[in-house]
Write a structure and sequence with these properties.
By secondary structure, the chain is an alpha/beta fold. It has helices at about 25-45, 50-70, 75-85, 95-110, 120-130, 140-150, 165, 175-185, 200-210, 220-225; strands at about 10-15, 20, 115, 130-135, 160-165, 190-195, 210-215, 235. It is about 50% helix and about 15% strand. The strands form 2 sheets. It has a 6-stranded parallel sheet, with helices on both faces. Strands 2-3 form a two-stranded antiparallel sheet.
């Protein structure tokens, strides 16, 4: 039975640590990912010295991590890899070579992402109740996100999927939220953003003038502790808690 007099019409979700979660040692995974990237380049005939490449790519990614928090501009993994290879004096490389190498790099991290046990239940319930669903995720690679969505068959639930790598800006920039608002064409008070990061999901929702729900089960992090002054409209322990507020 579809609810009447409900609070919202559109529910927007974050992806990582909201609908799926990472299990493993992040730093170890990054090392393995970069090695997979290097080996793929070598297998495709790109001549580059191992230590020089790994050092340069790591340095370029560190620059990216800092810049994205300042400007909210999404520099893609494709761009970061191309810049790295240019700095190392490697000539022009085809886009297919770059994409193949990045697929191998992200294959490592994809093996560490798992579906939250209540994700299907809440998405199915929301859909059955007539809510319209969207996804807004920060990520530097569109293919990586689409692979994860397909792996867990999450695509079917969302009318609108916005990936920062494709859009060009990251949460909490209001423009990426406005993209969803313009698509669904409801008043701002009709939206609820659900995510685990205060400085991205909650602040971004506030910047766009929509409601926010902070899911805390994987949100008790140092990053969130640094932004604890950002207060969401709602706090959730599980995704199923959404049933009580929508």
């Amino acid at each position: 039975m579809i609810q009447k007099n409900r609070s919202f019409d559109v529910i927007l979700f974050d992806l990582g640590d909201t609908l799926i979660y990472f299990d493993g040692k992040w730093e170890k995974m990054l090392i393995q990912s970069n090695l997979a990237l290097f080996h793929s380049l070598i297998e495709q005939g790109i001549q580059v010295e191992k230590i020089a490449f790994l050092t340069a790519f790591s340095k370029q990614m560190q620059w990216y991590y800092k810049q994205r928090e300042i400007t909210y501009i999404e520099y893609t993994s494709i761009e970061m890899l191309k810049i790295t290879l240019e700095k190392l004096g490697v000539g022009k490389i085809s886009d297919s070579t770059i994409e193949t190498a990045l697929v191998e790099m992200y294959r490592v991290s994809q093996n560490h992402w798992f579906l939250e046990k209540d994700a299907y239940e809440i998405l199915t319930w929301l859909t059955s109740q007539g809510y319209r669903l969207g996804l807004i995720t920060n990520a530097s690679d569109t293919i990586d996100v689409n692979t994860l969505l397909s792996k867990y068959q999450l695509n079917q639930y969302f009318e609108k999927i916005i990936i920062s790598a494709a859009y060009g800006l990251r949460k909490p920039h209001p423009a990426i939220f406005n993209e969803a608002i313009q698509y669904f064409e409801y008043p701002q008070e009709s939206y609820l953003m659900v995510g685990d990061k205060l400085a991205n999901d909650v602040l971004g929702a506030q910047n766009a003038g929509i409601h926010s729900a902070w899911i805390k089960r994987r949100g008790r992090t140092e990053f969130n502790q640094q932004h604890r002054h950002i207060q969401p409209d709602y706090q959730l322990e599980t995704l199923l808690d959404l049933k009580e507020i929508v």
